Amino acid sequence: MRNRFKHSEKGFALPLALLLLVVMTIMGATLVTISSNEHNANNDKDSNQQAFYAAESGISVAKNWMVGNVNKFSSTPPNNLDSKLRFCKASFFPNLISSNNGFHTERKSLNEVVTAAGVEATRLSKYSFEYFIAYTPGGDGNNSAIIKKAGTNNTLYTIYSCGCNESKDKCNAQSNIIIPLEAVVTLVN
After folding, report:
1. Does the chain have fewer CB atoms within 10 Å around its N or its C terminus?
2. pTM for this prediction
3. Distance CA 127, CA 108 (A)
4. Quick check: 58 and 179 in contact, CB under 8 A?
5. Please, what's the largest Cα pairwise distance for the chain?
């Protein structure tokens, strides 16, 4: 009877080893897939964050430009602003009444405004911003908002800035991550 019992267990290790191999392979493949998806999500999040920082840099550069060029503002802004913009489209900003009321537009890569060297300079060159300055829409539906207080006329301007996850030459509105931001600025006369 003992001989028959030992004979029935013969070859049991091979199917068990194959079953464990299949289970471990499925678990390993699942872990690799999850890890890969998390890595891609992290890269996307990093690109979005850097594009946001680029848009913020555009607002800072625009403010500095405004301080140095107050005398260049006229009562009638130039037309055809849309033709000067590459990726920061007026349609990104629902508060903008007319895209033809912009005063100044500029486009730069982050490495042009942030001092860095080596790998960091290369990384910064991959992100860019574009901005334009326009009158802030007034409460009455006009294109300008003028605050009259104590004998002064203070004009409100809005800086519309977009950050992009590509260099200023490669970025376009169809194929890149673009983060739009806007900031209202008051020029005191």
Report:
1. N
2. 0.72
3. 9
4. no
5. 114
